[in-house]
Design goal:
The protein is α+β, with helices and mostly antiparallel strands. It has 3 helices and 8 strands. Strands 1, 2, 3, 4, 5, 6, 7 and 8 form an 8-stranded mixed beta sheet that branches. Strand 3, helix 2 and strand 4 form a beta-alpha-beta unit. The protein is elongated, with a radius of gyration of 21 Å.
């Protein structure tokens, strides 16, 4: 009976060590960077989250149930291209703005519903950044092609 106790204890100890080793080798979730200063867009001061890594760009705002009116996520890409965006995993509607390397809007997809998935939205011209805000932002603040995002320093791609 006593040997069974030590055997079970040994198995549990080994299992615990294996679980610990497995969990510490998993890639850590990389959260988006937050802009230390605000940004001005459509006359509104925004608090920005930056998505500068592949993982952060892929995750984006998916899974969130709310986005404050003065918050947004800015996706940075390594070069100008026609980056496609879809609503996979999204729970809230968004306005999506494609911006050139100087931060000017080159295309808007307004009030994009999560139900639009799997449709992919593309700009007609290449862009360097994509900004996502709550749905209705473009309409409420008259944001259109040519509107400037004013930011002290635009983020660069980190991965």
């Amino acid at each position: 009976m006593r040997s069974r106790y030590w055997y079970v204890l040994g198995v549990l100890l080994v299992a615990g060590l294996l679980l610990y080793a497995y969990r510490t080798t998993l890639p850590q979730t990389v959260l988006p960077q937050v802009s230390p200063e605000g940004a001005l867009f459509g006359g509104v001061s925004l608090s920005l989250e930056f998505a500068t890594t592949s993982a952060a760009r892929e995750r984006g705002l998916s899974g969130r149930t709310d986005l404050p009116a003065t918050s947004a996520m800015l996706f940075a890409f390594p070069r100008d291209d026609r980056y496609g965006f879809w609503m996979k995993g999204m729970l809230i509607p968004l306005d999506i703005f494609w911006l050139d390397a100087q931060g000017r809007v080159v295309h808007v997809a307004a009030e994009v519903s999560p139900a639009s998935y799997p449709h992919v939205f593309y700009p007609p011209v290449p862009a360097r950044y994509v900004l996502e805000t709550m749905a209705g932002f473009a309409r409420t603040h008259a944001v259109a092609t040519g509107t400037q995002l004013t930011l002290q320093k635009f983020p660069t791609v980190t991965q």
